[in-house]
Write a structure and sequence with these properties.
Layout (H helix, E strand, L loop, with lengths): L1 H4 L2 H18 L9 H6 L5 E5 L1 H13 L6 E5 L7 H11 L6 E7 L5 H11 L11 E6 L6 H15 L1
Parallel strand pairs: 1-2, 2-3, 3-4
Helix pairs in contact: 2-4, 4-5
Length: 161
C-alpha cells in the first residue's frame, strides 16, 4: 500500500482533489480551484496533522505541497526520517515564506526524541527558523494521547490567530 509506505498518494490527492474541491465549494481566499489560484492564496491555508497525518506532513506535505500552505501544525508525528527530504525542502522551497510552524509532543510520549530530532532537522533548513516562525512545545506529563493533542490544537490556534 503506497499510502502506508510513503504517503505520496495523499500529497497528490490533497493537491489535485481535496484543495480544489474546497476552493470550488467553500468560501476561501483562492480565486478558483486551479493550482495557480491555490498557490496564490497559500497565506490563507494551513495544514494540521496529528500522529500519522503529522508524519505525512513531514514526509510529503512539506516537500511536495509547500506551495499551497504557509501555516503548519504537525503534532506528535509518528516515526519518520526527514533527512531524505531535507535537501528537497531546502532547495525547492526555500523561497516560500512560512508564517508559522508549530509542533508539539507529550513529555512521556514514546516518540518524543524522534519529534525533537525532526524539529531540529527542519529548523536547520529552508524557511524555518526556531523562535521566529517555528516553535516546538513539550506538553508535560502526557503520552501519545488525545489529551496532549487538544492542548496542542488550542496552543497552535492561539499562535495562528
Amino acid at each position: 500500500n503506497q499510502l502506508l509506505t510513503d504517503g505520496s498518494q495523499f500529497a497528490q490527492e490533497l493537491a489535485n482533489d481535496i484543495l480544489p474541491y474546497i476552493a470550488d465549494n467553500y468560501s476561501t481566499y483562492a480565486s478558483g480551484p486551479s493550482a495557480e489560484a491555490l498557490s496564490e492564496a497559500r497565506d490563507h491555508f494551513a495544514y494540521f496533522g496529528l500522529s500519522w497525518s503529522a508524519m505525512f506532513g513531514y514526509l510529503n506535505i512539506l516537500p511536495d505541497d509547500m506551495e499551497y500552505f504557509s501555516w503548519y501544525a504537525l503534532i506528535a508525528p509518528s516515526r519518520v526520517n526527514l533527512q531524505s527530504k531535507a535537501e528537497i525542502i531546502s532547495e525547492k522551497y526555500s523561497t516560500y515564506p512560512v508564517h508559522a510552524f508549530y509542533t508539539s509532543v507529550g513529555s512521556i510520549d514514546q516518540i518524543r526524541a524522534q519529534s525533537e530530532l525532526l524539529y531540529t532537522t527542519l529548523t536547520g533548513i529552508g524557511p524555518f527558523t526556531d523562535g521566529d516562525n517555528s516553535y516546538q512545545v513539550i506538553i508535560e506529563h502526557v503520552k501519545h494521547h488525545y489529551e496532549s493533542w487538544c492542548t496542542s490544537l488550542y496552543n497552535c490556534l492561539l499562535l495562528f490567530f
